[in-house]
Amino acid sequence: MNPLTLALYLGAAIHFGILSASALTPRALNWRETLAPLPPLLRRMFWVYGVFIVLIIICFAILTLLHAPAMAAGEPVARSVAAVIAIFWTARLLVQAFVFDARPWLTRRLYRIGYHLLTVAFIVLVAIYGCAALGLGERLPLLPLR
């Protein structure tokens, strides 16, 4: 199996791991109380946007599971899907670095560890899907699994 195919399967697993972290977010950030002062429409929009992001992440994982060999082989449509996923996680990483200030919420050691693990996960996803988008499936010098 192509090393990038294995990395893509790992990417799908990382997506599911991110979803498990997402499931903990509303409670960890006390959304019920924090969002209570908002008008009902804005409160609902916040939840709906969260659900849509979860659905996108599920789609990324499923598309990867179904098409990892095509992504790794550099098939054009699969490379395009990989590019979209790489761009998504690059944007998420940039937002985390330059827009969000999570420090007030990182009050527990477990939250700090989770935050940094998510950052590593985003970086790994950018690397994996970036390689697939660039068609580097056959030229991965860092993966000696051939």
State the main characteristics.
single chain, 77% helix, mainly alpha
Question: Please, could you describe this protein's structure?
Answer:
- The protein is mostly helical and 146 residues long.
- It has one domain (3-133).
- 77% of the residues lie in helices and 0% in strands.
- It has 5 helices and no strands.
- It has helices spanning 3-28, 31-35, 40-73, 76-98, 109-133.
- The longest helix has 34 residues, at 40-73.
- It is elongated, with a radius of gyration of 17 Å.
- The termini are close together.
- The mean pLDDT is 92.
Which SSEs are present, and which pair or pack?
Blueprint: H1 3-28, H2 31-35, H3 40-73, H4 76-98, H5 109-133
Helix-strand category: mainly alpha
Q: Write down the Rg.
A: 17 Å
Q: In sequence order, what are the helices and strands, one letter per element?
A: HHHHH
Q: Could you state the oligomeric state of the chains shown?
A: single chain
Please indicate the count of domains.
1
The shape is: elongated
Query: Helicity, in percent?
Result: over 70%
- Number of E-type strands: 0
Mean pLDDT, all residues: 92
Largest sheet: none
Strand content: under 5%
